[in-house]
Write a structure and sequence with these properties.
seven-stranded mixed β-sheet, about 550 residues
Length: about 550
């Protein structure tokens, strides 16, 4: 079945129930994608923890400042009572904002904004229907203008969930979120971020993407560096709390803080990626290094002109974020709160976060079946390959972005040593390998590490032992980002274009068939007539056909 968003024409005057919210469906083509329930559930969980911690922090400040003037005490008491302010810049039906109002504690106000007048009307109806008028306000405005107008009275949290690339909203978002506030950003243009169009990725995100088996983590790191770049222009920096790649999109939760000195750390948290065109070995080149409090330029490049493993050239991508993807302390606190929240996708959230907790804080990963495919060899069981790395004295984990990922602090040399050791036990057909193939170069090299595939007690991760739902199996219905909502400001233009292009191929084919039926004599006659008519045209007549 083809992926699609919910066609509201099929369910006019019905309701959509998700979480504690109930959305009226009365407009045609209002965008709602049921697959992103996981996105919204996770956002509810993260925002709930953020709001609670901010509330507890303000209570602590109140206790410490109990000896201050009565005026200050009353102000603190009012702030503690009201909680956080939230902007959902691209609200569509208002579902997410209404869920925040009903499921997230310590909310002061929520602005549910959309540029479409029809969507704004739908949001108002849904706010009234769900009886959250005291918390949620509908807004009909351009999201960027609304955020720029809020740079003084900032929001504690801003949620950006656009259709496609979020870049055009980030400049306003990093300015209008409070110090220590939360920015929640989704990107669904995975083809661009995953290396299918590097030049487009540079235009949109200021980084060149490369085709890699680690493309989903690369996408996260490209988005994070882009947010960091926007924030740095205003003396602000980012602290990623949780960065996930699931389904057909990526979602990041980052704190935005103010600090000119910390902004300088970005040079040591950004880097370029080199990937061999033959064996696909990867290397990271930081843009800078920080030693104590001093910043130095690193020696470059990180690789030779030709790959030291297979003598092929490299592709270069980036810059990407090479700092931490997750705040493991925050993730642990988030996992502890899940038992107190009712969410439709709670089982999957626990599974994904369990893998995130086990994930090493190391940039990028290799994929097991691809490693063995390069050397034309059978693929070992994941537990045996992990055991070999653990016995060699290195750490290894999965990435939440790929169920066959090998994320390790072992040098690439050791990874190929493991591959060679396995190939000796399960020989590849070397007579089929060409002289310049990466496989032959890697398998012919000498190993420097003693490898054993005996079972290691840490090779089987806890999340696997508990049979948690760690990786989503692609469902057939409603898969993908869906189609863009037609309740937009230029919807009339979109409809006219659609009508204009109806039966376009059929008309083109009929014209081609008519032309092919003409004889050469008829074509010559038409050519002569065309030339004579052009020569006989008066200047006045010619002026009518000029553009």
């Amino acid at each position: 079945m083809e992926p699609k968003s919910l066609d509201v024409e099929e369910s006019v005057n019905k309701t959509i129930i998700e979480g504690k919210a109930e959305i009226l469906v009365s407009e045609k083509k209002v965008f709602y994608n049921p697959v992103q329930e996981f996105n919204r559930d996770l956002s509810v969980a993260v925002l709930s923890l953020f709001a609670k911690e901010k509330h507890d922090e303000s209570l602590l400040i109140k206790e410490k400042s109990s000896n201050n003037a009565n005026k200050n005490e009353k102000q603190n008491e009012s702030e503690n009572k009201n909680g956080i302010s939230v902007l959902e810049a691209l609200s569509a039906t208002g579902l997410r904002s209404i869920r925040y109002a009903k499921e997230v504690p310590h909310i002061k106000k929520i602005i549910a904004n959309d540029i479409s007048e029809k969507a704004a009307d739908s949001i108002k109806k849904n706010i009234t229907f769900n009886k959250v008028e005291h918390l949620v306000t509908a807004s009909h405005n351009d999201a960027t203008i609304l955020m720029y107008q809020s740079r003084r009275d900032r929001f504690d949290a801003i949620d950006l969930d656009p259709y496609g690339c979020p870049s055009i909203f980030l400049d306003g978002a990093v300015q209008s979120v409070s110090n220590g506030g939360l920015l929640l950003v989704t990107a669904t243009d995975m083809a661009v971020l995953a290396g299918n169009s590097p030049e487009t990725c540079y235009v949109k995100y200021g980084a060149v993407s490369i085709k890699s088996k680690a493309c989903h983590e690369l996408a996260l790191r490209i988005l994070l560096q882009h947010i960091a770049a926007h924030a740095g222009r205003y003396g602000r920096y980012i602290e990623p709390l949780l960065s996930i790649s699931v389904d057909f999109y990526i979602r990041v939760f980052v704190r935005i803080r103010t600090g000119q000195i910390q902004c300088k750390d970005n040079t040591s948290k950004l880097g370029m990626v080199y990937q061999c065109t033959g064996c696909e070995s990867m290397a990271i080149q930081p843009l800078g290094t920080k030693i104590n409090r001093s910043y130095k330029m690193p020696a470059s490049p990180a690789v030779d002109q030709l790959c030291k493993f297979c003598k092929h050239k490299h592709h270069m991508g980036g810059p990407i974020w090479i700092g931490l993807l997750h705040d493991q302390s925050f993730v642990s606190r988030l996992v502890d709160t899940l038992d107190n929240i009712e969410l439709g996708t709670i089982k999957r959230i626990k599974g994904v976060l369990s893998v995130v907790q086990e994930e090493l804080d190391i940039p990028l990963y290799y994929v097991l079946d691809r490693l063995m495919s390069i050397v034309k060899c059978d693929t070992p069981a994941m537990v045996r390959f992990r055991s070999a790395l653990l016995h060699a004295g290195y750490n290894v984990s999965l990435s939440h972005a790929n169920k066959l990922s090998i994320k390790t602090d072992a040098p690439t040399e050791v990874i190929w040593d493991v591959v060679r050791a396995w190939e000796k036990m399960h020989p590849a057909k070397r007579d089929r390998l060409t002289e310049n193939s990466p496989a032959l170069a890697i398998l012919s090299a000498k190993s420097s590490t003693e490898i054993t595939f005996d079972g290691h007690p840490l090779a089987n991760p806890k999340s696997r032992k508990l049979h948690l739902t760690r990786f989503q199996v692609n469902p057939a219905p409603n898969w993908g980002p869906g189609t863009r909502s037609t309740t937009m400001i230029n919807s009339n233009e979109a409809i006219s274009k659609k009508i204009k292009n109806q039966n376009k191929k059929r008309h083109h084919k009929s014209r081609s068939d008519n032309n092919s039926e003409k004889t050469n004599e008829e074509k010559n006659d038409e050519s002569i007539e065309s030339k004579s008519s052009d020569a006989d045209e008066t200047p006045a007549k010619q002026s009518k056909i000029l553009p």
